[in-house]
Amino acid sequence: xxxxxxxxxxxxxxxxxxxxxxxxxxxxxxxxxxxxxxxxxxxxxxxxxxxxxxxxxxxxxxxxxxxxxxxxxxxxxxxxxxxxxxxxxxxxxxxxxxxxxxxxxxxxxxxxxxxxxxxxxxxxxxxxxxxxxxxxxxxxxxxxxxxxxxxxxxxxxxxxxxxxxxxxxxxxxxxxxxxxxxxxxxxxxxxxxxxxxxxxxxxxxxxxxxxxxxxxxxxxxxxxxxxxxxxxxxxxxxxxxxxxxxxxxxxxxxxxxxxxxxxxxxxxxxxxxxxxxxxxxxxxxxxxxxxxxxxxxxxxxxxxxxxxxxxxxxxxxxxxxxxxxxxxxxxxxxxxxxxxxxxxxxxxxxxxxxxxxxxxxxxxxxxxxxxxxxxxxxxxxxxxxxx
Length: 387
Fold this sequence. Notes:
GO terms for molecular function: DNA binding. This protein is of the alpha+beta class.
């Protein structure tokens, strides 16, 4: 019996530099290439999509990404793994919908029906309101939730939630209904109101996605993910997808993933990815809060020492802006009110690293210009540096 392939930490960092387009020699020319390389760009914070893309482009900017999202539709913003909002390559949208979101959307739909019933609105009323919303959106082309509430007054109907409790509040039918419709795929988040950092988006109609079998879609999603993030453990795949362990193991088997030895235990790669990759030239990168690379694995010791995590994560597990050197997180960064980028190292890195990081910071600051970016999820280091 041949020995199981072993992939050490240095090799994992080399693969990260190449596959995630972070080393300068591997950066690319289009947002579509970036999205394909990392599979999914976190989009809960609108600025993250642009900053994550810019960190991997030869010539960062906003125009190409806006064109891909809102004109060419080669990228799509939708809910995905762990109920989180992402930007995916358009061709991957049916896979994400079938593998992950269909089940979630069904649960959300049941919750919506129960919520509406609390206010005295039955399923027939809700279905009619939904059809009126689709018709209004088709006529308008695109509209914010507030504008849709003007066009379809039923969306403004408010229902009390948690009645009698300290956190009692009123919530409109529109907030819940538009979210469910987005999860189901009948509507999509479109161009924002304001600049690229704005969180106030418009809605637009979306073409129906092809129906795929769940198991086949799960295998396809894991295949894409391992091509970018492998080697990875079962726990990594389970965490990233949000699936149960049985689903993870079935998908790994279906895409014929190969077990390998890691420092953390058994990992998996695609069958054509067991051979070593060349070591890249020394590289530095400044990645934004919620970037897909630091958020890509559950087990992070190989690129982030445990003792540095408290500074870089908020209490919900969201990572802030990070400084990278040769495949490791070595510090953090933030933008101050005057636009200056502030850096802090969490360990000694040496003069070569500091010079490379300074060059990346100067490039990012020049690109941002007068734009000010404050992460939606604030971390201890980012708060301290931005103050």
